[in-house]
Amino acid sequence: MLPEPPAPLLRLENVHKRFGRHEVLRGISLDVHEREVVAILGPSGSGKSTLLRCINHLERIDAGRILFEGQPVGYRERNGRLVEAPEREIARIRSRIGMVFQRFNLFPHLTALGNVMEAPVHVLGLPREEARQRAVAVLERVGLGARLDAYPAQLSGGQQQRVAIARALAMQPRLMLFDEATSALDPELVGEVLAVMRDLAAAGMTMVAVTHEMAFAAEAASRIIFIDEGIIQEEAPPDTFFANPGTERARQFLRRVTRP
Questions:
Q1: Nearby residues of 111 by Cβ (< 8 Å), 6 or more positions away
Q2: What pTM was computed for the model?
Q3: Rounded distance, CA 83 to CA 220, Å?
Q4: Rounded to the nearest 5 degrees, what angle is found at the Cα of 33, between the Cα atoms of 31 and 37?
Q5: What is the DSSP string of 122-160?
Q6: Strand pairing partners for 75?
Q7: Nearest Cα to 222, choosing from 3, 38, 14?
Q8: I need a labelling partner for 242 at 20 to 30 A (CA). Which of 88, 154, 200, 254 fits?
Q9: What is the DSSP string of 152-185?
Q10: 257: part of which helix (H) or strand (E)?
């Protein structure tokens, strides 16, 4: 008898999300296993960023379930219904899910080191010296060991985004979410952020990345999820998706994003 496959780290079951009358997510089901890198592709307005925000309970879902480490995210089941979980429970789950946004959202009055130390001290309750050692280590990991005392205004956009990645890593998450982490950067700065993301993927970090960077998705992802109009239209390994997409909608998308 074959052993059962491991449970997914993250599971989405028939997730729906609407804003007013507009249904943005229309029944998304997805499993993400430990050490997987899932790239989410699709046209603007297809629901990709909303999906990431629902995973972290920054947006409340309207139907379905999201499970992280086997536990419902943001909700508890009571008498067969989902009710909002206490904020402390939501914060505990969020502390294990790192998220990097399009905008860096750094505290302008804190140095790179101070920005990265903030959450380990105030959320995890680490002693300041332990938090400092952890912050130095992750800043060195993203190539900013020489800029510990620089303020955000003294850093390039790519460096600020790498501080944001280090800030998420300092919480030692089990899952990293990237929401178009390079879209606010000048083209010449994109590569330094993608290099950090590739290194994380190679090191075995479980990642879900909404991205417009097709080369990154082709090289670093274990799986491609193509979303359009709030539905997963296609799911395939990168080689299959880019060489022989199975739907006409995916073929149209690839022609538009990869044309010279």
A1: 148, 149, 150, 151
A2: 0.93
A3: 37
A4: 95
A5: HTS---HHHHHHHHHHHHHHTT-GGGTT--GGGS-HHHH
A6: 84
A7: 38
A8: 200
A9: GGGS-HHHHHHHHHHHHHTT--SEEEEESTTTTS
A10: helix 248-258
Tens-level pLDDT at each residue, the chain (260 residues): 666 778 899 999 999 999 999 999 999 999 999 999 999 999 999 999 999 999 999 999 999 999 999 989 988 877 777 788 888 888 889 999 999 998 888 999 999 999 999 999 999 999 999 999 999 999 999 999 999 999 999 999 999 999 999 999 999 999 999 999 998 898 889 999 999 999 999 999 999 999 999 999 999 999 999 999 999 999 999 999 999 999 999 999 999 887 54
- The letter for the amino acid at 100 is V
| 221: CB partners within 8 A, 6+ apart | 37, 38, 39, 201, 209, 238
Q: What is the CA radius of gyration of the chain?
A: 19
Residue from 96, 141, 160, 148 nearest 123 by CA: 96
Q: Which residues of 238-247 are buried (b: 16+ CB within 10 A; e: fewer)?
A: beebbeebee
Q: Which amino acid is at 66?
A: I
